[in-house]
TrEMBL record:
<dbReference type="InterPro" id="IPR050266">
    <property type="entry name" value="AB_hydrolase_sf"/>
</dbReference>
<dbReference type="Pfam" id="PF00561">
    <property type="entry name" value="Abhydrolase_1"/>
</dbReference>
<keyword id="KW-0378">Hydrolase</keyword>
<dbReference type="InterPro" id="IPR000073">
    <property type="entry name" value="AB_hydrolase_1"/>
</dbReference>
<dbReference type="GO" id="GO:0016787">
    <property type="term" value="F:hydrolase activity"/>
</dbReference>
<protein>
    <submittedName>
        <fullName>Alpha/beta fold hydrolase</fullName>
    </submittedName>
</protein>
<feature type="domain" description="AB hydrolase-1">
    <location>
        <begin position="25"/>
        <end position="266"/>
    </location>
</feature>
<dbReference type="InterPro" id="IPR029058">
    <property type="entry name" value="AB_hydrolase_fold"/>
</dbReference>
Length: 295
């Protein structure tokens, strides 16, 4: 979706851009670190045929403002709450990818009445393990290194090399790899880079992820949750699904074979089918109102 087609809401003096498409039960799509609403482009198109889909560019990301300030999970969760409040939406199903999964879980923890159910896609916040590249990005001095790594010249050369390898069969450049490359290139922008570092350092250090949501699941034993992961995810290992499964009696886990960190982009048709089945199992039929099951 072009940026001129995005809607705008002003929250605490800053502009938040978002997609609001379709009608029916509300589904909020929350992107990950360095992402934007465009990370959900296939889902916005297909899910909006049956649901009202809200997909924001979080503050510090995409077309939204990138103010100096708090980029913690709680701050992002408050943004989700404030957006729902501004749109007069009492509650919704939250779908979060990577960092967005952590934000969805933090929204549940802080504002449980706002969350009907969760769909976590390659989610952060379920274990310490995370890509060494993300751990390195939080180290002192990374502010100086990131602009060089993400420079237009370097990324153009790398993209051409990856494209050549993909063409001759030496390297498979799937949707996950392409989206990860595009997301990383955005740190060449200074304001985006500052927001990225503030967000990453709030949840990651040199040892890995510092926030773990699983101890809090005991407060939500009736929570209906869907976990979707890529079998070949090199950013956050799919073994983290076991951490959640142990605490969520009603949880459902789907591992997509040959998928990476963006399984919903690698296999959008399968994601749509799995998500539709999950919503039906939760008692949310097409054209019906939401059924709150989070607590």
């Amino acid at each position: 979706m072009a940026t001129d087609q995005l809607q705008t809401v002003v929250l605490h003096g800053d502009q938040l851009k978002y997609v609001d498409q379709g009608s029916g039960p509300v589904v909020v799509l929350i992107h990950g670190l360095l992402g934007a609403h465009s990370n959900w482009e296939p889902q916005i198109e297909t899910l909006s045929r049956h649901y009202r889909v809200i997909a924001p560019d979080l503050f510090g990301h995409g077309a939204s403002d990138k103010p100096a300030g708090d980029y913690s999970l709680s701050a992002h969760a408050a943004t989700v709450r404030d957006l729902l409040e501004a749109l007069d939406i009492p509650s919704a199903t939250l779908v979060g990818h990577s960092l967005g999964g952590g934000i969805a879980m933090q929204t549940l923890y802080l504002f449980p009445d706002r969350v009907e159910r969760l769909c976590l896609v390659a989610s952060g916040g379920l274990g310490p393990e995370v890509s060494p590249l993300l751990r390195a990005a939080t180290l002192p001095g990374s502010e100086l290194v990131l602009p060089v790594l993400a420079s237009r010249t370097l990324t153009d050369v790398t993209d051409k090399a990856l494209g050549l390898f993909n063409k001759i069969g030496l390297f498979k450049l799937g949707a996950s790899a392409s989206e990860a490359r595009k997301s990383f290139a955005s740190v060449s922008d200074a304001s985006t880079r500052q927001a990225f570092l503030a967000t990453a350092r709030s949840v990651i250090n040199y040892n890995g992820q510092t926030v773990n949501a699983t101890p809090h699941f005991a407060n939500f034993k009736n929570l209906q949750a869907l976990l979707v992961w890529g079998e070949e995810d090199t950013i956050i290992p799919n073994a983290h699904t076991e951490n959640a499964r142990a605490e969520l009696p009603l949880g459902r886990v789907e591992i997509f074979k040959r998928a990476g960190h963006f399984p919903h982009l690698d296999y959008p048709d399968r994601f749509d089918r799995v998500f539709s089945e999950f919503m039906t199992d939760c008692g949310v039929g097409i054209g019906t109102g939401p059924k709150a099951v989070s607590s």
